Amino acid sequence: MKHWWWKFLAIALLLVASIAALRVPLSPALVHVSPSRIAPGEVTIEVTGYNTRFTDGMQAYLVNDSQYVCPVRVDVIDASHARIIAEVPAGMRASMTDLVVQGLTYPGAFFTEGLGEGIERGACGPRANKLDPSGLAFTFPNRSILYESIRNLHFHVPMWFTMIALMGLSVWHSIKGLGDGSLDRDRKAVSAVHVGLLFCGLGLVTGALWARATWGAFWTNDVKLNGAAVTALIYLAYLVLRGSVADAHKRARLAAIYNIFAFMLLVLFLFVVPRLNAIDSLHPGNGGNSGFNDLDLDNRLRVVFYPAVAGWVLLGLWLYDLRERTARLAEQLDR
Amino acid sequence: MKKTLLLALLMPGVLLANAQDAAPSWLENSLYGNGKINAVIAVIAVILLGIGGWLYRQDRRLKRLEDAQRKA
Amino acid sequence: MLLYVVSAVYVCYLAVKGLSLPATWNALYWIILLFAAFNALSRSFQREDGGRQLYLYTLVDPRSVVVARSVYNALTMVVLSLLSLLFYTLFLGTEALEQAAIGQFVLSVMLGGIGFAAVLTLIAAIAARAGNGLGLMAILGFPLVLPMLLAVLRASKLALDGVAWSVTSTYFGGLVLLDIITVTLAWLLFPYLWRD
């Protein structure tokens, strides 16, 4: 019981984090606006919301370069659909016009025709001091193109954290093993690599699925994806190296050397090279692509994310423990 | 070694997967459906299947050891 | 080795005549150089038999052996890469080099050659100790030179486009850092490899 507590902790953390990751609602947002182009004259705008509560008499207006256009009529169809009729004046300054409904902004909603020197300021700008009860609820950010799949943050990303943790554990055992030449350390190192590769595979497949849903392709030429592929190749090569040496002590030494060398270069590649050419990554937090931390209310993601990472890392250690004990048993039986 | 081969076989599949530009519509519908919640379902399914498969193999490995021990 | 490079370049010349796109020109060059590096460096530990190794082991510190090997391999690679660059431009033309910052490109070629040598020296030693030849060397080495290859491809592409030194210097700094760390690791790890 004493030595088990962390396994219970793993399950508890995963339970709490997974339930939260699936059950926390997304914050309301406008997800679709049509038409996408407006010209001076009367326009009818169809708005679709997500998790919204459209009500009769709700506030809606167009924003063009901080000048406001008030609607003629707002018809609420249901909680997430509304029709807005507005008289678009000629002479707006910016080519993109935003739409605001119930305090929710759909930026760049309309490509605007009939530009000019500006319009008369409408009387319907943002209401000051409006306390929106939905802003107080615990919600995940609702980002366009991600939508509900933002929840994958709590499932896909911890795979990589777990993999790095396991590979780090493996290298630690390799360093120790090089020092004292013990085969125990070698067994631990290779067990950690085995489980690490499982999580690497899971990370690759889940990443491909998520990428397909967000970026439209299973695989993109991206710094992080290259890093993942290189990691997989390195550790597969590690296993091949082990397979090609018969003598156990020699195998342990060669594998440990390769493991340390490869891991150090991998760390350089994963954490230094992306900083060097931080130009073209689709992943959050790389070159010009804002991380998740700039999202409003990012702490709401973090509150769930960190327990999820801790839970998955502990589960990875548990699997490693099983694997290592099995390997030890096999060695004892061999003898 | 078997797993090594399997992963090695999977890698080019993942790499080549973007070769096909036009995705079949069932894929679009299933992955993009319901505010993209299905992408989350798919990811969780993959993780559970992956860990389940690993546990199954681990189980088999232990079984082999148990058999060997019984014989010895 | 030189023969290998020349024939590789000639094959490329036959395959793609009149290559003017800098990106492709660059990529092709580095692919040739990558395979040349694998071929050249895999032999650096292969040619020694056990007796000679034991003799060297009793004679000198293993660390000086690996440092000497790294330096020798780095020099070989620098010469090899510059020579292959020469043949490459002779056969495939210099159209792609029109806008290039030549000095920067040559520097990136040299740094890339040294980087390949630094990474592959230790890998060659491991492969030789494992008693398995070029095949194992390629499997072990390829994922490790891939990061280096990506960085050097980016740097030399920028040099070909004639980007200012202030932009590219971070890449070159990164490459030098990578080389230094690699050689240090090899220096630290090599004694364990030699112990028997």
What does this structure look like?
The complex is a heterotrimer of chains A (335), B (72) and C (196). With 335 residues, chain A is α+β, with helices and mostly antiparallel strands. Chain A is built from eight helices and nine strands. Chain A folds into two domains: 107 residues, Immunoglobulin-like (Sandwich), CATH 2.60.40; 188 residues, no CATH class. In chain A, 50% of the residues lie in helices and 17% in strands. In chain A, the strands form two sheets. Chain A has a five-stranded mixed sheet with strand order 2-9-8-4-5, with no helix packed on it. A four-stranded antiparallel sheet of chain A has the order 1-3-7-6, with no helix packed on it. In chain A, a hairpin with a 2-residue loop joins strand 4 and strand 5. The longest helix of chain A is centred in the C-terminal third of the chain and has 37 residues. Chain A is elongated and about 85 Å long. Chain B has a domain of 47 residues. Chain B is 86% helix and 0% strand. Chain B is built from two helices and no strands. The longest helix of chain B has 47 residues. About 26% of the residues of chain B have low confidence. Chain C is built from seven helices and no strands. The two termini of chain C are 32 Å apart. At the A-B interface, helix 4, helix 5 and helix 8 of A face helix 1 and helix 2 of B.
Give the N-terminus to C-terminus distance of chain B in angstroms. Answer: 26 Å
The averaged pLDDT of chain C comes out at: 80
The Cα radius of gyration of chain B reads 19 Å
Q: In DSSP terms, counting alpha (H) and pi (I) runs of 4 or more, how many helices of chain B?
A: 2
Please state the structural category of chain B: mainly alpha
Number of domains of chain C: 1
Poorly predicted segments of chain C: none
Beta-strand portion of chain C reads: under 5%
What share of the residues of chain B does DSSP label as strand, in percent?
under 5%
The amount of helix of chain C comes to: over 70%
Count of individual beta strands of chain B: 0
Q: How do the SSEs of chain C run, as a string of H and E?
A: HHHHHHH
| Helix and strand pattern of chain B | HH
C-alpha-based Rg of chain C, rounded: 18 Å
**Which structural class do the helices and strands of chain C define?**
mainly alpha
Q: Which consecutive residue ranges of chain B, at least 5 long each, have pLDDT under 50?
A: 5-23
Could you give the distance between the termini of chain C? 32 Å
Average pLDDT metric of chain B: 70
Morphology of chain B: rod-shaped
Number of helices of chain C: 7
* Multimeric organization: heterotrimer
